[in-house]
Design the sequence.
């Protein structure tokens, strides 16, 4: 079992950058695939990016390819989401998730961190 805590959200202007972090509390963090999801106001939660337990495979939603980078540091039990060239449509609550592989299923979720991109 793992508990997830996100941080790094905030207000940024369009074109700017933010880096989100998610710390996993639990001895088995390094065995989990990890992912980031987001939920915009009045919209359903959507997949953003995922990474394999060893960091050797990543997946991205088409809407963020080339702008966002997911990475992990298992020694620090942390997964990151570097977000560059941010757009107003990137606004939402970003959630960290842990699962059996880089493709899910996603069994554990954090409480989220809010990202607001102003135009």
Sequence:
């Amino acid at each position: 079992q793992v508990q997830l805590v996100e941080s790094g959200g905030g207000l940024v202007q369009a074109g700017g950058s933010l880096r989100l972090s998610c710390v996993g509390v639990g001895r088995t963090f390094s065995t989990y695939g990890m992912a980031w999801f987001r939920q915009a106001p009045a919209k359903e939660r959507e997949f953003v990016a995922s990474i394999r337990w060893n960091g050797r495979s990543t997946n991205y939603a088409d809407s963020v390819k080339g702008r966002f980078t997911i990475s992990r540091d298992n020694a620090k039990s942390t997964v990151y989401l570097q977000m560059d060239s941010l757009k107003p449509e990137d606004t939402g609550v970003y959630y960290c998730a842990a699962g059996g592989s880089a493709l899910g299923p996603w069994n554990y979720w954090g409480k989220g961190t809010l990202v607001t991109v102003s135009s």
Observations:
- The mean pLDDT is 96.
- Residues 39 and 45 are 4 Å apart (CA to CA).
- DSSP finds no helices and eleven strands in the chain.
- The longest strand covers residues 18-25.
